[in-house]
Structures are given as structure tokens and as C-alpha cells.
Write a structure and sequence with these properties.
Radius of gyration: 18 Å
Mean pLDDT: 93
Strand content: 25-35%
Order of helices and strands: EHHEEEEEEEEEE
Number of helices: 2
Distance between the termini: 46 Å
Number of strands: 11
Low-confidence stretches: none
Helix content: 10-25%
Length: 197
């Protein structure tokens, strides 16, 4: 029987070249910005010269995603960018990123027992029935888990609900998160959706 996949939600993944060297610089800068026992920096890291190489990499990968989706709209900008530093027992509750088109995370430091990033199935109807399965696949599981790996970049639609498991290691998990918004003229007068940002 043919299976036709309707309306897939796509997670884009890339690896930052020479991430070991870059991550040492990023981690040192992030630690200098984190206040005692805080878990996040301010949200303007994309304006910090220490992160310029990472920002350029992110912009390139967002452009590649736009190419894959065949978007004719090519103008976008990073609206906010911040670092998360989690210690033992710390994580992030389920949330999404409002006022954004695309969001992402880049992993600077991870540990074996760093909590996973969990994406939740946006189709709430999938939660109505609890049907047993012989194995979990991308097609029958209500969540998708990603184990954080240093140097990895993930891009996902901002509306997609996700959370971060608590970390159960004495080492720190450091990540850089960001939001991207479209810019310029969007939509079409033919569709009655014209908008300028």
C-alpha cells in the first residue's frame, strides 16, 4: 500500500565547521555574560562580535532552508539570540516562539546526560487515542527527541512546541537559541494577504 505523507513538519540540521575551536570562544563569552545562578543571557548575542562567525553560519543555513522550501521571499533577519546555560536539574518547560517565523538552537557544550530537546506533535488529534505499537517511528510517536551534540545546529518552525529535559549531569549544557523573522513585502494582493514588515 502506498503511504502519502501530508503536511510534514521539517527539522533542518547542520554541523558548524571546526566547531571545537569556535565553541571554546563562544562558551567563554557566554560564561562571562551569565550572572550567578542565571540560566540565560540577554537576547542580543547576534550583535556581539564574538558570535559573528556563528551568526554568519546561521544566516547561511536559514538561506539554504528557504531554498529547499522554494520561497521567493528572501529577506529575513535575526530578531533575538540568547544563550542558555543549564546545570544539574535544570531544563525548559514546553513552549513555542511567538512573533517569529523560524527558530533554532546551536549546541556549544553538551554532556552525555544533558537533557534531550523534545518536539511535540502539533496535531492534537494524535493524542485522542493511545494505540499500542510494536516500535516507535516518526509516523506513530507523539514526540521527537533530539540528543544535544556539540556543533549541531537545528532549525524549526517557531510555532512547533518543544521543551528541554532536565540535565542530570554535573557538567553544563550550553546552547545558543535564536529567532528569525521575514522582512519586506509578504503575501499577495491576489490572496488578500499583503503585509509589509
Amino acid at each position: 500500500m502506498q503511504q502519502i505523507f501530508l503536511f510534514p513538519t521539517i527539522l533542518s540540521a547542520s554541523t558548524y565547521p571546526d566547531h571545537a575551536a569556535g565553541n571554546r570562544i563562544f562558551a567563554a563569552r557566554i560564561r562571562s555574560l551569565i550572572k550567578e545562578r542565571a540560566t540565560q543571557t540577554h537576547d542580543r548575542l547576534h550583535e556581539d562580535p564574538a558570535f559573528t562567525p556563528l551568526v554568519e553560519f546561521i544566516i547561511g543555513k536559514v538561506s539554504e532552508r528557504f531554498d529547499y522550501f522554494k520561497y521567493t521571499q528572501r529577506d529575513f533577519f535575526i530578531t533575538s539570540c540568547w544563550a542558555n546555560l543549564h546545570r544539574r536539574g535544570e531544563g525548559i518547560a514546553t513552549h513555542r516562539h511567538p512573533n517569529s517565523f523560524l527558530s533554532g538552537v546551536y549546541y556549544v557544550e553538551t554532556q552525555k546526560e544533558s537533557g534531550k530537546l523534545i518536539f511535540r506533535d502539533p496535531r492534537k488529534a494524535e493524542l485522542v487515542f493511545d494505540v499500542l505499537t510494536s516500535e516507535k517511528t516518526a509516523w506513530n510517536c507523539p514526540q521527537f527527541e533530539v540528543r544535544p551534540v556539540e556543533g549541531h545546529l537545528l532549525l524549526f518552525p517557531s510555532w512547533l512546541e518543544h521543551d528541554v529535559e532536565r540535565s542530570w549531569t554535573d557538567g553544563e549544557r550550553i546552547s545558543v537559541s535564536f529567532n528569525v523573522m521575514l522582512q519586506g513585502d509578504l503575501g499577495s494582493p491576489d490572496h488578500l494577504t499583503r503585509l509589509t514588515i
